[in-house]
Every structure is written in structure tokens, then in C-alpha cells.
Amino acid sequence: MAGKDEGRSPTDYGRRAHIFQESSRVFRALKERRDEDGGATATAQASNNTPHS
């Protein structure tokens, strides 16, 4: 999110709404993908990130 935030001008609200909309779309797609996989991918990734003794 580059750019200087100079307050509450109407253009700031539009920019923030756009960022929120895109973020929501991305996270919804990730959740749907995770749900379709049955969580297997997330579980595998978590086990790969676990430190081994």
C-alpha cells in the first residue's frame, strides 16, 4: 500500500474501499481453496514449518 495518506479526503475512502474489496476477494478465494482441499494443504504446510528436535 504505497503512497502517503494525507487524511480523510473523499479519494482516500475510495482507495481504502478498493483495497478492502481486493483483500476480501483474495482471502475468500484462499478460504474456498482451503475448504476444497479439506485443510490438507494447510496442515501439511504447518507440519513443514514445525521445528524438528
Number of strands: 0
What's the main sheet like?
none
Can you count the helices?
Answer: 2
* Helical residue percent band: 55-70%
Mean pLDDT: 77
Instruction: Determine the strand fraction and express it as a percent band.
Output: under 5%
> What is the terminal separation in angstroms?
39 Å
Radius of gyration: 18 Å
Structural class designation: mainly alpha
Shape: elongated
Low-pLDDT residue intervals, each spanning 5 or more residues: none
Topology as H/E string?
HH
Biased composition (Basic and acidic residues): 1-15
Biased composition (Polar residues): 42-53
Region (Disordered): 1-20, 32-53
Write the layout of secondary structure elements.
Elements: H1 10-37, H2 40-48
Report on this model:
This protein is an all-alpha fold and 53 residues long. It has 2 helices and no strands. The chain has helices at residues 10-37, 40-48. The longest helix is centred in the middle third of the chain and has 28 residues, at 10-37. It is elongated, with a radius of gyration of 18 Å.
